[in-house]
Structure formats: C-alpha cells, structure tokens
Design brief:
The protein has 122 residues and is α+β, with helices and mostly antiparallel strands. The protein has three helices and two strands; from the N terminus they run βααβα. It has a two-stranded antiparallel sheet. The model has no long low-confidence stretch (mean pLDDT 85).
C-alpha cells in the first residue's frame, strides 16, 4: 500500500491538492495531451505502408502482404485520405502518458479527431 502525504509538502514524489465541487459524485475531467512522442512511424502513401508492413510488422509471414487483413484495414484508411500513425507505449520510458496508456489500455483515448485502427488491446 502506498503512502499518501496530506497537506502540502515540498521535495515529495507526490502532489496534494484541494478541489471545490458542486457534486462530489461527478469528478470526471477531460484533458488534452500531445501524443506525438509516442509516434514511431508516419505513413502517408501506399508504397510507404507496404514497406513498413513488410520491414517492421512482418505481415507477409503467412503469404503476400496484400492478402493480410491488417494491411487491408490500414490501406482502406489511407485510401480515405487518412495518415497512419504507428505508435507504441510502455511503462518504463518516463513518459506519464505512455505509462497510463500501457497500464490502462486505449480505452483512455476518446476523440473525434482520430480512429483507433488497430491495437494489441483488441
């Protein structure tokens, strides 16, 4: 069980704060975060997609990459004018967002600005 410090303490690894709320049962907040540090590769063309899928994802292990269902899913998004961002996260890189996504899954991400095309969470 971790210790919690009460009151405001300097030189501590934790933070304390006080909230004033109308309804203590409704404490949901939405924050905006920059995910750019998690991007491993940006794919904008079919040629780049095929290269990435062959060289990094090894999607041709079970036959031609063009027959792979993941490749087809990615290609469909590209043909709709989307840019694909291949991303990764872990819990030991010092990035709080990366750690939170690794520990809690992509369910934390909700946006009308992007679609989650594929994930290991599925």
């Amino acid at each position: 069980m971790s210790k919690k410090r009460l009151f405001f303490v300097s030189n501590s690894s934790s933070s304390s704060f006080v909230l004033a709320v109308d309804d203590p049962n409704k404490l949901k907040v939405t924050i905006e975060v920059d995910l750019s540090d998690l991007v491993d590769n940006v794919v904008k063309t079919e040629e780049d997609l095929k290269k990435y899928c062959l060289e990094e994802l090894y999607l041709d292990d079970e036959g031609p990459v063009e027959n792979n269902s993941r490749y087809k899913k990615y290609l469909k998004k590209l043909k709709k004018g989307k840019t694909l961002l291949f991303m990764s996260c872990c819990n030991d890189d010092g990035n709080a967002i990366s750690s939170a996504l690794y520990e809690n899954g992509l369910g934390l991400l909700k946006s009308n600005k992007f679609d989650i095309v594929d994930s290991e969470d599925e």
